[in-house]
Automatic annotation (TrEMBL):
NCBIfam families: Obg_CgtA, Obg_CgtA_exten, PRK12296.1, PRK12297.1, PRK12299.1, small_GTP. One of its GO terms (biological process) is ribosome biogenesis. GO terms for molecular function: GTP binding; GTPase activity; magnesium ion binding. Keywords: Cytoplasm, GTP-binding, Hydrolase, Magnesium, Metal-binding, Nucleotide-binding. Mg(2+) binds at S172, T192. It comes from Clostridium gasigenes. The lineage of its organism: Bacteria, Bacillati, Bacillota, Clostridia, Eubacteriales. This is GTPase Obg. GTP binds at residues 165-172, 190-194, 212-215, 282-285, 312-314. The gene is obg. It comes from the Bacteria.
Length: 428
């Protein structure tokens, strides 16, 4: 089964919490704080595996969650960092943000390793909060949460040459003739329902990869049939071999077939349409009148295509000439990656702990509700039953500008401030 698109969920590990601990040994009854830091959470890392050719594995496994870091412990012992989670994908995999469909990474090199979501940092232990005026802090920092998101994995085959043309024009026959690939070949439309790759190793030419793209039909660029799925796989090719059935056995006119396919390429991508093409008139062994080919060639020349070849993939007539021309043209065409514009590229947003303040009027006093990720993280740090911890809590509210914002909103003595389940009375 050939799977070239999949949706998955990934999450990096949370950092371990810092520990609250105090040194307690014989003859040392009042030792200082010795809580260690938490460990880092596992990161999500993508890497290329050249032994994989489809995204089939992601049809059955769609959720990838890295492990959390261990929490700190006493005696200033740090928690253990979690192992990173590696996700292997085929060469040529494009990673997109599912919501925006923007491109995050293009893994088109066999050495590609992409650190995607970093694990959360471990929280500081209480020994890190010790100061000359706060010698016994009864609080520690929680670990930073990991990140999570939905992704779309999209496979775009890496091939030097792409074979395009209507169904049943002889693309699979040519591929099987010049490579070791064994695509299914039969005399009916849409025999090929998945792209096939093969390596061309002919005498006197440099080896190159050729892809047999399943038959493109009219309306393919609008999603008719499996058009969009097929067109995706020729985006990386440097050269197209455009095959037409010159025999007319299917009842179609070769020149019209050529224009139809080219129009679909243009609708899908102007860059793809503008790619160099070798035009091949196939099935010449069934041609009843050679003037049909000559007329077709004349029309191609008028359009500016000077690489027009006669071929019979079935009898191998003219195959060598086509392959040599393709190899020669590839020498002059540089290898480039997919062009991804700024509009198409995903820009990660820096993770920030934020809050908003909502005011609820009361008869005797007002209540100010502070909500958001900033609140959750702060409350995880605070021990509300410890005076030093509450002083630290007040200092954070002041340094982050929360108290100034409350004053600008008109808070007065006796009003209540609510952070989740924790409430306190505001005193100027």
């Amino acid at each position: 089964m050939f799977i070239d698109r999949s949706k998955i969920f990934i999450k990096s590990g949370d950092g371990g919490n810092g520990a609250v601990s105090f040194r307690r040994e014989k003859y040392v009854p009042l030792g200082g704080p010795d809580g260690g830091d938490g460990g880092r959470g596992g990161s999500i890392i993508f890497r290329v595996d050249t032994g994989i050719t489809t995204l089939l594995d992601f049809k059955f496994t769609k959720k990838f969650v890295a492990k959390d870091g261990e929490r700190g412990s006493k005696s200033k012992c740090y928690g253990k960092d979690a192992d990173d989670l590696y996700i292997t994908v085929p060469l040529g995999t494009l990673i997109r943000d599912f919501e925006s469909n923007k491109v995050i990474a293009d893994l088109s090199d066999k050495e590609d390793v992409f650190v995607f979501l970093k694990g959360g940092q471990g929280g500081k232990g209480n020994c890190k909060f010790c100061t000359p005026t706060r010698q016994a802090p009864h609080f520690a920092e929680p670990g930073m949460p990991g990140e999570e998101m939905w992704l779309t994995l999209e496979l775009k085959l890496l091939a030097d040459v792409g074979l395009v043309g209507f169904p049943n024009v002889g693309k699979s026959t040519l591929l099987s003739t010049v490579t070791a690939a064994k695509p299914k070949i039969a005399n009916y439309h849409f025999t090929t329902i998945r792209p096939n790759l093969g390596v061309v190793k002919a005498g006197g030419v440099n080896a190159f990869v050729m892809a047999d793209i399943p038959g493109i039909i009219e309306g393919a660029s609008d999603g008719v049939g499996l058009g969009l799925d097929f067109l995706r796989h020729i985006e990386r090719t440097r050269l197209l071999i455009h095959i037409v059935d010159i025999s007319g056995m299917e009842g179609r006119e070769p020149f019209e077939d050529f224009n139809t396919i080219n129009e679909e390429l243009k609708k899908y991508s102007v860059k793809l349409w503008d790619r160099p093409q070798i035009i091949v008139a196939n099935k010449t062994d069934l041609l009843y009148d050679d003037s049909v080919y000559e007329e077709f060639k004349r029309k191609m020349n008028e359009l500016g295509y000077d690489k027009v070849f006669k071929m019979s993939a079935a009898t191998k007539t003219g195959v060598e000439e086509v392959i040599k021309e393709a190899a020669a043209m590839l020498q002059a065409i540089p290898i480039t990656g997919l062009e991804i514009t700024d509009e198409e590229r995903f820009i990660p947003q820096e993770k920030k702990f934020t809050y908003t303040i909502q005011l609820e009027k009361g008869e005797e006093s007002d209540t100010y509700f502070i909500i958001g990720s900033f609140v959750d993280r702060l409350l995880n740090t605070v021990n509300i039953h410890d005076a030093d911890s509450l002083r630290y809590f007040h200092k954070v509210l002041k340094n982050k500008g929360v108290l100034d914002e409350l004053r600008e909103m008109g808070i007065k003595d006796g009003d209540m401030v609510s952070l989740n389940d924790f409430e306190f009375e505001y005193i100027l």
